Each structure stands twice: as structure tokens, then as C-alpha cells.
Amino acid sequence: MAPSRAIAPPLPDVLYTMAEEGADQETSDLTEDMWAGLMRDGADVARRVEEEVDANNAAVSRDEIDPDDLVAIRDAAGVIITRDHRHGRVSAETYPDENELLAAWNAIVAELEPSALDVEEAEMDDGAEGPSSGRNAAEHQG
């Protein structure tokens, strides 16, 4: 299996435009300086990129796109696109495996939305102990 692959410019800008209109998931930090979008199904993403370029709806032409990048997108479980609004930088990376894709996405969410994970952890550990668990178990057993 191929490793994740950083997509070369100018294709990340095309992917960013597509993700803004229809990412499967997206997140941003509180100041909205950083944004990230997850697009699953690389074959569908590659098809949509080619349609946009061929219809002249994208700001790039086919000869500006590295064909190996399109192959990497097509073969990927998904693509994560990030944009640093402060510096105007857009990047995109493909992930060939669903587990790698989700691990990378969860790391980005944890970085941009640290409180989202705190809420999940708080919901999982509400501190309540029932009679069959914790230090009170012996007291309730007879």
C-alpha cells in the first residue's frame, strides 16, 4: 500500500474549492484562521477534479496537474485539505487507507477543536459509579 502523499500545487486550490462546496466533514479553529476538510472516496474526488478541469470551471488546466497526483487521489480512501487563512496556504494530502485517513483527520480535529475531544471524554467518564463498580462495590455487595 502506498503511503500518504502531499499533492503538488496548484491542485490543492482546486480541491479546496471543491471541499468548501461539499466536504464530507470540515472543521476550523475558534478564530477560523485554520480550516480543514475531509473528502472520502478518492475515485469520486478524482472524477470531480477532472470534470471541473475539463469543463474549464477550475483555475488550472490539465497540463498544470501532476498526473501522479490524480492517480494518488483516485487510489486513496480520501483526501484531507487544509487552509491557513492567515498565510493564504492551502495543502492537500491523500491517504490510501481508511484507518490512516481517520487517524489523520482525528489528529487535525484534536488540534483545531481541542474542546470537542474534552466533551467526548467528559461524556464517557461522567464520574458516576454504580453499585457494581469502583470503591463502592464492596459496600453494596453484602
Quick structural gist:
Helices cover 45% and strands 19% of the residues. It is an alpha+beta fold. The protein has a 5-stranded antiparallel sheet with strand order 1-5-4-3-2, sandwiched between helices.
Structure characterization notes:
The structure is a single chain. The protein has 142 residues and is α+β, with helices and mostly antiparallel strands. The chain has one domain (5-126). It has helices spanning 11-22, 42-54, 67-75, 98-112, 114-124, 137-140; strands at residues 5-6, 25-28, 34-40, 78-84, 89-95. Strands 1-5-4-3-2 form a five-stranded antiparallel beta sheet, with helices on both faces. It is globular, with a radius of gyration of 21 Å. It starts with a strand and ends with a helix. Residues 119-124 and 128-142 have low confidence and may be disordered.
What descriptors fit this protein?
142 residues, globular, alpha+beta, single chain, disordered C terminus
Based on Cα principal axes, name the global outline.
globular
Distance between the amino and carboxyl termini: 57 Å
Number of domains: 1
Alpha carbon gyration radius: 21 Å
- Helix and strand succession? EHEEHHEEHHH
Describe the largest sheet: 5 strands, antiparallel
Which consecutive residue ranges, at least 5 long each, have pLDDT under 50? 119-124, 128-142
Q: What share of residues are in beta strands?
A: 15-25%
Q: So how many helices? A: 6
Helix content: 40-55%
- Give the spatial strand order of the biggest sheet: 1-5-4-3-2
Average pLDDT over all residues: 84
Structural class: alpha+beta
The beta-strand count equals 5
